[in-house]
Amino acid sequence: MKRLLLSVLLLSASPALADTADGSMLIGKPWAEIEKMAKGGTVNWFMWGGSDTINAYVGDRIGGMLKDSHGITVNRVGITDAAEIVNLVLGEKEAGVMDRGSVDMIWINGENFRSMKQAGLAFCGYVETLPNNALINWDDPAVANDFGVPVEGCEVPWNKAQFAFAHDSATLPEPPRSIPALLDWIKANPGQFTYPAPPDFHGSVFVRHVFYHAAGGAENLLGPFDQAKFDDVAPKAWAILNEIEPYLWREGTTYPNTIAQLQQMFANKEVALVFDYDASQFGLAVDNGTYPATVRSYGLEDGTIGNTNYVLIPFNSPNKAAAMVVANALIAGEEQLAKADPAIWGAAPAIDVTRASTEVQAGFAALPMHPSVIPATELAKASLPELQADWITAIEQGWIENVGK
């Protein structure tokens, strides 16, 4: 998913909905009453705006559905980094804006969620009030914990994502399928690989794969940040990354700044490999003519990192009822199915499909598989956990200081 694949749902303040700013009154309230309170509201949805497909899905499908069903206007607001919105909410709290905030919901996960939860910026406890919460398997640790931080009713899962690579099978029939093999391949094929410079979300997750390799496996890094472990592993990781640097695109003298830049380089055949947190993006790029039809995506034999991403309502949203209605709509079985359709988006569902209606289950079973997209079930066979946010911050800063410079 994306670094921000991180985003925000906002609801504009209006006198008719001002009373919903008091979130406590909404928890456990009959859903029909919440829907009545939400009617006619405006939802400004701040979210990562780097995908035309996702933007269209949110703006047209979700926006149109909620306009018809509840008179809610969904105003998608594209952002590049959810951390900016976290800082906005924090600034409002410090300024005493406790019930007229500008943000009503955020597409979010990882360190940004950790920051909001620790700073008391999240509206919590409402999730069980949503009717469609029955479709969420909170017994799944990958859902109940966001990058190792317990969700505890403070956000609603929207998608699952797992890192994947892609290659053009016409020019590279057999790509490297493990981190050790990739490191060897990079040195044997100078100029054919690079990655965005951290803290770019995708560049950061690539570096974490190398960090896992240097640590002898992700299991050696799980749990709260451990400075001693970091100090032991980090020099090995920086040595690996510095060793391959001269063999990268432009001899490692510069790195792409964003995943979009790397995608364009792959499309232009400047590099032979590309990667993404959402494998469906490879199929969409083929369908819109950006990538050739011979592109194929794949996971690694030693695993790729996966996670869940969520939507969160800030503590000072003035329109929490309408935000709850939007969040509930996002996890409806029918919407999770539509979103999973490669022709619409191709995102992996956050719900437990076995809890959905028989019609929705049949729909998932009948979904067409794009030839360029590795099935999520196949990727999941070798899934690696995310680290807690303090680890990620330290790794990103360490890369900047020891590799990027």
From TrEMBL:
NCBIfam families: PRK11622.1. This is ABC transporter substrate-binding protein. Residues 1-18 form the signal peptide. Pfam families: SBP_bac_8 (PF13416). Keywords: Signal. InterPro entries: SBP, YnjB.
